[in-house]
Hints:
Shape: globular
Amino acid sequence: MKRQVIKGSMLILKGLVKYFPVLFEFLLTVFKFIVKNLVSYRKCVIKDNLNNSFCDVYAEDDRNQIVDKYYSVMFRYIKETIMMLSFDQKVLKSKINYHEQDRWEGYFNNQMSVIVTASHFGNWEVNMVAFPALTRMKVVAFYKPMSGSDVEKIMFEARSKFGLHLYPIHLTARVMQELKMERVLYVFLGDQSPLNMNGVYWNTFLNQHTPWMTGAEKLAKKYHYPVVYLSQKPIIASDVWYELNFYLISDDSADTIEGEITEKYSRILEAEIKQNPEYWLWSHNRWKRANIKNLAHNKSFG
Length: 302
């Protein structure tokens, strides 16, 4: 019953986007007002994250402006994700400027897989779903299961709509072993709070002692895969939503020292966040497993 209600709600949203776009925009504006001003969704988490990250960079008024911008960006992401449900592949591709396609063709022609490290800077939901429409390589991503919930099943269908192959995160090593003879583009989201703190890599990131998952780095080293960082630059006031660029982190990861790939990833991401902080996922409690009490006023940005 719950699954039918959720699917029915998604059909209604698709209909609003396609046939009643003005009404859809109005309802989204009302929802944003409720979430931001009446519910104050995760406002304490957002403010704490910004205060700890930028206490010596932005004054309090400036940090409050970032909070306001963040809510607008969050609803931009929600709007894009809902609209994507009604898109065909051609329309979705038109929303993304995709650079360096020759790099992926080179990997494909050389029968080489590659690891893409992504982040919650920009709308990763839209860009990950779009990847299979942008490359000839098989695109594989890993996700954290939600105990077989109806929401998970429906999101799985939506995310795999254009050919994205999804696997539970605990199967990562097994899947990569099984696919080692294929040309695969593996997508890892690295800026999440680690579920398992064993073997994490620690550094100072955004003024705070931060743990990083190292699974992508270890697997890249094991298989000698190149690693790139995906930059998802939002485009303002345009029919195009995102500009995708790729920064090479390592050509042959087996030649890197321990922690080198994760460190480079974190620095590229940190630079993006500092340039446009409102586009990162501040409502995610990124540091919940790290002890930051004594580091809140640390002046070092690593």
